[in-house]
Structure formats: C-alpha cells, structure tokens
Amino acid sequence: APYKHASDPGAAEKQVNPLAGNMSADVLTAGRKSYDIYCTVCHGATGAGDGSVAEKMAVKPRNLINPEAKAYSDGRIYHAITAGKGVMGAYG
C-alpha cells in the first residue's frame, strides 16, 4: 500500500511502531540486515554519522546516537527513511 503520510510529517510522527518492544532475535537480525544494507555507508556501523562515504559528503549524515536523534519518535524515523529527509533520498 502507498505510504499515506508522505506529505504530512506531523501525522507521520504519530505513527505507532508495530514492532516496538519486540527484541526477538528475528526482529533484531532483520533490522541489522536492513541497516547494514541501506544505512551504514553514510551513518556508519554504530550510527555516529561516520560511514565510509560521510567524509566526501558536503552535508554530513546525521549522528543517530546523539540524544536529540535518540528522542525521535518511531514515526518520525520511519517517515524520514520512507519519504527522505534533507539530502537523504527516500527508501520507500
């Protein structure tokens, strides 16, 4: 189904993560696999924004482990990944 909040970040931020709190091995493995494929090259293995291409980028990737980013709602993170944010393209 098409992402219904692509043009409404406010509504997107209120989305509920259906996997919140699920720390099963399957969920963690799937999450790590997706992060390694799509995110590590810019955000780095730990999320510090120090991926292999980060130093070559005019606008540096967000540090995902700083307190501000850690406070983002799941909906805000999902929206940024799905619809894109700043210079980061959409992965939806």
Provide the fold topology.
Layout: H1 9-13, H2 25-38, H3 40-43, H4 67-70, H5 74-83
Structural account:
This protein is mainly α and 92 residues long. It has helices at 9-13, 25-38, 40-43, 67-70, 74-83. 4% of the residues are buried. The model has no long low-confidence stretch (mean pLDDT 94).
* Helical percentage: 40-55%
Q: What is the structural class?
A: mainly alpha
What's the overall geometry? globular
The tally of beta strands, per DSSP, is 0
Our estimate of the beta-strand percent is under 5%
Please count the helical segments.
5
- Radius of gyration equals 14 Å
What are the salient characteristics of this protein?
0% strand, single chain, mainly alpha, 40% helix, 92 residues, globular, 5 helices
Give a quick rundown of the structure.
This protein is mainly alpha-helical. It contains 5 helices and no strands.
